[in-house]
């Protein structure tokens, strides 16, 4: 797990969306926007109950994690003033958690950050949470 400075942690914590990249066992990538929380070098993102065409365990990101746990997450800021551009890339290993103290804690942090998740009652759904343990963090730009 990488240690990052408090400015970067504040930057990550302020962001509401990240772009999550997974690859299947053939190396074919998929990138999707996700909601997330960052805590002590770990990113958590829920599989929630927003309408989906297939069951949560058949979602491409979930299947990819099962086939190939190596993932990347981009958290960025675009600004027409290019002196204010910035990004954080978190590379790591993903897994799914669906019970226990860490699971409950992750759901609590997600519900605290996103009011919509509190209204969905994530704790009652029993759906997994994606857990990304960082092994490399790349930063660039203006983090003021």
Summary?
The chain has helices spanning 6-14, 60-67, 100-113, 115-120, 122-125; strands spanning 18-23, 29-34, 37-39, 42-46, 70-77, 86-97, 129-141.
- The CATH topology turns out to be Pnp Oxidase, Chain A
Shape: globular
Main β-sheet: number of strands, strand sense, barrel status? Answer: 7 strands, antiparallel
CATH architecture: Roll
Count of DSSP E strands? Answer: 7
Number of helices: 5
The helicity comes to 25-40%
* CATH C-level category: Mainly Beta
Spans of at least 5 consecutive residues with low confidence? none
**What is the H/E order?**
HEEEEHEEHHHE
Write the CATH homologous superfamily: Electron Transport, Fmn-binding Protein, Chain A
Number of domains: 1
* Mean pLDDT reading: 91
Textual characterization of the structure:
The protein is α+β, with helices and mostly antiparallel strands. It has one domain: Electron Transport, Fmn-binding Protein, Chain A (Pnp Oxidase, Chain A), CATH 2.30.110.10. Helix content is 28%, strand content 37%. The chain has five helices and seven strands, in the order αββββαββαααβ. It has a seven-stranded antiparallel beta sheet.
């Amino acid at each position: 797990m990488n240690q990052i400075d408090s400015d970067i942690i504040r930057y990550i914590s302020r962001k509401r969306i990240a772009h999550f990249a997974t690859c299947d066992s053939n190396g074919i990538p998929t990138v999707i926007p996700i909601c997330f929380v960052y805590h002590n070098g770990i990113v958590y993102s829920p599989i929630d109950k927003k309408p989906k065409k297939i069951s949560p365990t058949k979602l491409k990101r979930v299947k990819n994690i099962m086939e190939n746990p190596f993932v990347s997450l981009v958290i960025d800021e675009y600004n027409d003033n290019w002196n204010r551009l910035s990004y954080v890339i978190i590379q790591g290993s993903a897994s799914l958690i669906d019970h226990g103290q860490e699971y409950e804690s992750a759901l609590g942090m997600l519900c605290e950050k996103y009011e919509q998740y509190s209204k969905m009652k994530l704790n009652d759904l029993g759906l997994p949470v994606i857990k990304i343990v960082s092994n490399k963090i790349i930063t660039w730009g203006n983090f003021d």
